[in-house]
């Protein structure tokens, strides 16, 4: 992918009136992809100047700017490809304070793990829904780490794991059956939330609102609201964030777990 390091024209989207705004950068080879991503992010993420460019060399035009996030598209290329390694190294050197998110055509565990091992904060297969991708980007911007929900197929394909926005929170894992109905693989300390409540908790960790959780889990918003209330009650929490934090501490052995059959 030499095009990621070839000289290019100045980055598009710079405006004099936005020089003091934090910057999100989209790096994608194809103009159509860049434009589509740019338009979505402008609509969904307010308060940022969003800049698109074809290659990493365009970052020279943003010297001195407050770059918060760089979204790099890598297509079908493996993370270990020399051009991708070069691009990631360049981003780390030139924008050390920016979070890096990768947009990939691949959705396998090996690619996701390789990305995270290289310091990438967000891994976004193009197979995920737009609303989920936006929630993941917000999570990365808030200082978290995003990976897709677990996927284990019957043919033995490897899975993707979810990483919480809370660094000390253990991962949850799950499987999809032939009906695409997710069932959670319970850990030893997770037995006092029902499987459905754990699905909802997993979505809460991603910062998703009830509406998106309902779509993701194929539930009504009222049902999601009921599950959230039960989770908060079981965790003795006053709000959603506190419920996630309390459950994380319980997982880490700071509170006993009780079996729940409801």
Automatic annotation (TrEMBL):
Transmembrane segments: none annotated. It holds the Pfam family GerE. Residues 186-251 form the HTH luxR-type domain. PROSITE patterns: HTH_LUXR_1, HTH_LUXR_2. One of its GO terms (molecular function) is DNA binding. Gene3D superfamilies: 3.40.50.2300, Winged helix-like DNA-binding domain superfamily/Winged helix DNA-binding domain. InterPro entries: EvgA-like, Sig_transdc_resp-reg_C-effctor, Tscrpt_reg_LuxR_C, WH-like_DNA-bd_sf. GO terms for biological process: regulation of DNA-templated transcription. This is LuxR family transcriptional regulator. It comes from Bradyrhizobium lablabi.
